[in-house]
Amino acid sequence: MLRFKILVSVVPLMVAAILARIELVPGPRPCIAVGDQSLQIASMPWHADLHVSFTDDPAAATVRVQIADSAEAADFAVVDDVDSEEDNGCDMNAATQFVAISGTPSATAPVIYLSHDGPADYRVFVKSRTFTDREAAALIVGASGGHPHLAAASL
After folding, report:
1. What's the predicted TM-score (pTM) here?
2. 60 domain-assigned
3. How many domains does one find in the chain?
4. How far is CA 86 from the centre of its chain?
5. Which residue would you say has higher pLDDT here, 90 or 125?
């Protein structure tokens, strides 16, 4: 009987812990504005216009992105100190394109090599509470249509 009482008292705690981890109302997704359109990290991969993946092998990459030490040294910088979700510079509209980060590389999708040094097609600087380095790299590659810079890894 004691085991049953312990089980009955633990089950609600487990359910509360699981519900605390589930995102009932999704928060804002990282996005950037490019001209009159915007690019946003897709919350559902099947809804994405472009899929990208990451690799640890620079030879397997189709696009190389370097994490810059300063905003001045970057092609794309994300710095936010936004305290409210209303200060979103990216509005959803019909021209919004979604970028999904895939776990496995595809033959037709860009494969990004993210590093702190070496040659790079793009350089990103990220100091953000909402963006990760990988999300910033995915968005800058998405903004270019998945293609490397014209100066492709020549620096």
Report:
1. 0.70
2. yes
3. 1
4. 20
5. 125
